[in-house]
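Hello forum,

I keep getting stuck at the same step: I have a sequence, I want structure tokens, and every attempt I make locally crashes halfway through. Rather than fight my setup again tonight, could one of you with a working pipeline run this one for me? It's a single chain of 236 residues.
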Amino acid sequence: MDESRSPASLVARPPGSHPPRSLPGPGKHLLGLEQVRDSLLYLPPALHSADPAGLLVILHGAGGDAAAGVSLLAPLADKYGLALLAPASRQSTWDAIRHGYGPDVAVINRALDRVFRTIPVHPGQVGIAGFSDGASYALGLGLANGGLFRHIVAFSPGFIPPAPRVGKPAIFVSHGNNDSVLPIDSTSRKIVPALRRDGYDVTYREFDGGHTVTWESAREAVEWLGWEPPGHGETS
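Reply #2:
Ran it on my machine without issues. Output:
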């Protein structure tokens, strides 16, 4: 590993061109990269080999797994033609939530590299999202990899794990005003103003409810991405 590179840095990138290839069918696909807690790739029915897709890395909350990550946005992925990559943390939650970036970054990098070799991905339509601990990790990892992730979606985050920041990805945050797990006053109501002071473009939504991802906030987040579905032309 390059010692000058942050432990949070991801090196996988979409290729510059997308030669025709045989794609997996729609639905969930294990990547076969990890012996336990493997990553899942979820493909919408609308994806075709000639059309680069938007790819959202989706991170589960504490105690979850790859299937829990996929379940957060799968119906909307079908509607909007999104590919979802759902890795699973090595332990009960993501590494930087407890001690620092390490094994989970390596898993995500391997998974991204495999996905970029498997399906055509639009390089301007790669984002990262998560719920709860996954939202915190999405903020930390996303801000550290702004050259890869153009958009970050954080559903009910707790904090931002520190890492050197790269680029200025756009950010969407939602949080329930009755959250008893990660109370909003000590989390998003502090996180969002701090990000705005640092010059980030943040869209923020509070909703009446607890520690959850509502259908409305999930739909708004996916629409906020502004990504054209496959077959509708490329966007920058």
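The radius of gyration is 16 Å. If your local run keeps crashing, start a new thread with the error log.
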